[in-house]
Fold this sequence. Notes:
Layout: E1 2-3, E2 9-14, E3 22-27, H1 28-99, H2 107-110, E4 130-140, E5 143-152, E6 160-170, E7 173-177, E8 195-199, E9 202-210, E10 217-226, E11 231-240
Antiparallel strand pairs: 1-2, 2-3, 4-5, 5-9, 6-7, 6-8, 6-10, 10-11
Amino acid sequence: MAKAQGQDKLSFILYTKQLAPRYYEISRNYFKFLTVGLPVITFICIGGLIAFAVYFKQLEVLAKRKEPVVINNLREDNLALSNKISELDQLNKSLENKLASPVQTDREIGTLSLFKQIQGQKDLSKSPALTLEEVEVVPVDNEIALNFKIVNATKDGARQAGYLFVIMKAGNQVALYPEDAFERDEMQLSFNKGEYFATSRFRPVRAVFPRVSGTREVLFKIVIFSATGDLVQKQIVSQTLGTP
Length: 244
């Protein structure tokens, strides 16, 4: 190998036994590209391919790790939907039985003249599935709050749902919770216009009423209906208030 006259070229003479010598010239930059640049580019490409392979392998591992969690979540959602469908089926059957029954004339329910009676309505308050605990009357400034807990009293802890009303009588005035329970042009309440609740353990309730000035005796009546309209709980609470 010998240098050419130009500094940017390299010359080669190739000798063979049977053929005449051959003369070759090559650019110095091209020679550097072949001996240095091309191996570097090859190394970078191989490194990039390895990096991509490792990255996609990690994605595959993460996907496999998440797959059992996703499947478990789907199973839980499916179980919850199945339970909900079962509850709705039971409610539908109960409503069908009520519609096929005559109007209840039980005296206990008859005393609830504030509420509309429905087909097949029953008084289940003598052996209630729900009880009231921690009942407390709390006067606060110009308001009176009735606090209590609706406690699930079933042996198996089956989820209970229904509607609750609280009626307060102070002097000659009566207030209702929830406030918007009355329908327009109606003087009676539908059981499903109460505050909806559902619980497997307990549900805290805070019913707030305006305080009637000049009145020290207040009377509360808590009425709870099941999701199908049966009377499941009723309780009267009286309280003597101090001077506001």
